[in-house]
Amino acid sequence: MRLTWLTDIHLNFLSDAALASFYSTLTENRPDALVITGDIGEADSLESYLRALAAHLQCPIYFVLGNHDFYRGSIGAVREQMRHLNQENSRLTYLTQSGIIPLSDSTCLIGHDGWPDGRNGDYERSPVLLNDFLLIRDFRRPDQTIPRLDPEVRRHWLTVMQRLSAEATNYLETQVAEALPNFSHLLIATHVPPFREASLYSGHISGDNYQPFFSSRKMGEMLLRTAIASPQTRITVLCGHSHWTASFSPAPNLTVHTGGAEYGEPVIQRIWNL
Length: 274
Known about the structure:
By secondary structure, the chain is an alpha/beta fold. Helices cover 32% and strands 20% of the residues. It is built from 7 helices and 13 strands. It has helices at residues 16-29, 46-56, 75-88, 132-135, 151-179, 211-214, 217-229, and strands at residues 2-6, 33-37, 61-64, 92-94, 101-102, 107-111, 185-189, 200-201, 204-205, 234-239, 246-251, 254-258, 270-273. The strands form 3 sheets. The chain has a 6-stranded mixed β-sheet, with helices on one face. The protein is globular. The protein starts with a strand and ends with a strand. The relative contact order is 0.18. The mean pLDDT is 96.
């Protein structure tokens, strides 16, 4: 199987001509399957881009969503939209809702959107204000009279982040446990790097101001714990979010690949021959 990996393609930043060119590039690549690790578009454009990809590529498309995919929407509503799309279009598979996907006798694909959990770096002192907090309904202030940067609002943001991260971690932990007896290679798709060492910017590990929003320590702890307990199983994680290429192996049988990205210039990250 020839599996092509994309991440952070942000198709809403492309002109019609650039979109057509990108679709042609993918078609010429002749993938047997495509996996996308999030940030495809935004809530109001996501479905149309996925439909266009499915129309151009005569192969299965497996995907998770990134934070941008929920912009101008809510997480629950977008995920429900993806559930209906999956039911309607057999080429599209939203991994967050789809369980274990066998790719070969030895390799399976598992995925979940994931989310940063604020546990790496210094969340309390970070001056970073993400568009997530302004454009995703789940992060709206419980009381709109409270100033946006009030400590109570920041606690609310952290609570939402950690709830989403825990949901992703628990889902993947369950799926991984089910897959371990049957596959020697687990390919895991998620959006957010699960280790700070896999979250780079300008070639360096992101600093303490940005780490809370660009890595998920809870996810990383689960993956490392699983890898150590199952040394005969190879675990490969594909992610994006930080827009800088990185590879990190915290254990001999666990490798995380983070895809690089530029707005308006989507690229094929890697081709896996399984």
